[in-house]
Amino acid sequence: MVVYDIKPWDDETDMKAMEQCVRAIEQDGLLWGTSKLVAIGYGIKKLQISAVVEDDKVSTDELAERITEEVSDHVQSVDINNFSKI
After folding, report:
1. 2's torsion region: left (phi>0), alpha (psi -120 to 50) or beta?
2. Which of 20, 28, 32, 79 has a CA 20 to 30 Å removed from the CA of 48?
3. Enclosing domain of residue 45
4. What CA–CA distance (Å, rounded) separates 33 from 43?
5. Which tens digit of pLDDT belongs to each residue from 9-54?
6. Strands, E, within the chain: which ranges?
């Protein structure tokens, strides 16, 4: 399981739309889990979302890049917050 921290461009970013765009990313071996908004300062919140990934099918780094590229209107950066093998 991987927990991603997805940071928006600013405090005016539509976080619901951003989450919908992230969840719209589909790939064999990828299952999106729970999410929450976490305050990071100056009125800005980041999206913290978990994902279950199969090692053989999904690269966590490539998925982070894909989120950044495909949701670039909303996303400034993506970081891995937590990574654990199940």
Report:
1. beta
2. 28
3. 2-81
4. 25
5. 999 999 999 999 999 999 999 999 999 999 999 999 999 999 999 9
6. 2-8, 30-41, 44-53, 75-83
How far apart, in Å, are the Cα atoms of 7 and each of 31, 37, 73, 85? 20, 10, 12, 24
Asked, for residue 58, whether it belongs to a domain, the answer is yes
With respect to residue 86, please indicate whether it lies within any of the assigned structural domains. no
> With a threshold of 0.90, does the pTM exceed it?
yes
Provide the token pair at 77: 């950066």
The structural domain count of the chain equals 1
> Could you identify the residue written with the tokens 């670039």?
72
| Digit-coded pLDDT (tens) for 44-58 | 999 999 999 998 999
In a domain, 16, yes or no: yes
Identify whether the C-beta of residue 77 lies closer than 8 Å to the C-beta of residue 18. Answer: no
Q: Are 17 and 74 in contact (CB under 8 A)?
A: yes
